[in-house]
């Protein structure tokens, strides 16, 4: 990602970027509903600032600029954290949508039909396999 792409990705959460001697500090404010898995957070130097706690979680990510990979690693951690929570939010929206669909099915189907209702999820190792199956289904 170039600098413009990084800024666009961070912009909804960005509070500030600072240079502190040989360190880069990226300050972000995340929604109060977000979670911060230890498995992600432990990969970076992160501090929480209580000053902005009313707005959400104010986290400060710090990386030493003199090491080529430290800033990239910090940005990867931030991206993982944002992606994790956006995916979680999307799953919650999808769940609500599917619950509404399921309620309609239950409202309109007979009890006997509902007793035979099954959910079957096929797992695909890669997207090509999924697309091949969809193409075969469309052709039939």
What is the strand arrangement across the widest sheet?
1-2-4-3
Q: Helical amount among residues, as a percent range?
A: 40-55%
- The total beta strand count reads 4
Radius of gyration over all CA atoms, rounded: 22 Å
Write the layout of secondary structure elements.
Blueprint: H1 3-10, E1 14-20, E2 23-30, H2 38-41, E3 45-48, E4 57-64, H3 70-108, H4 111-115, H5 127-139
Antiparallel strand pairs: 1-2, 2-4, 3-4
Explain this structure to me?
The chain has 140 residues and is of the alpha+beta class. It has one domain. The chain has helices at residues 3-10, 38-41, 70-108, 111-115, 127-139, and strands at residues 14-20, 23-30, 45-48, 57-64. Strands 1-2-4-3 form a 4-stranded antiparallel sheet, with helices on one face. It is elongated and about 70 Å long.
Give a brief outline of the structure.
With 140 residues, the chain is α+β, with helices and mostly antiparallel strands. It is built from 5 helices and 4 strands; from the N terminus they run αββαββααα. The two termini are 42 Å apart.
Features:
140 residues; alpha+beta; four-stranded antiparallel beta sheet; 4 strands
């Amino acid at each position: 990602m170039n600098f413009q792409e990084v800024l666009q990705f961070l912009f909804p959460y960005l509070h500030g970027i600072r240079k502190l001697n040989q360190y880069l500090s990226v300050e972000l404010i995340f929604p109060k509903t977000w979670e911060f898995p230890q498995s992600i957070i432990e990969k970076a130097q992160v501090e929480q600032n209580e000053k902005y706690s009313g707005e959400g979680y104010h986290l400060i990510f710090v990386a030493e600029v003199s090491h080529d990979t430290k800033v990239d690693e910090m940005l990867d951690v931030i991206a993982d954290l944002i992606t994790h929570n956006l995916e979680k939010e999307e799953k919650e929206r999808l769940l609500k949508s599917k619950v509404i669909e399921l309620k309609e099915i239950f409202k309109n189907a007979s009890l006997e039909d509902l007793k035979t209702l099954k959910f079957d999820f096929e797992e695909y190792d890669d997207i090509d396999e999924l697309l091949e199956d969809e193409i075969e289904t469309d052709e039939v």
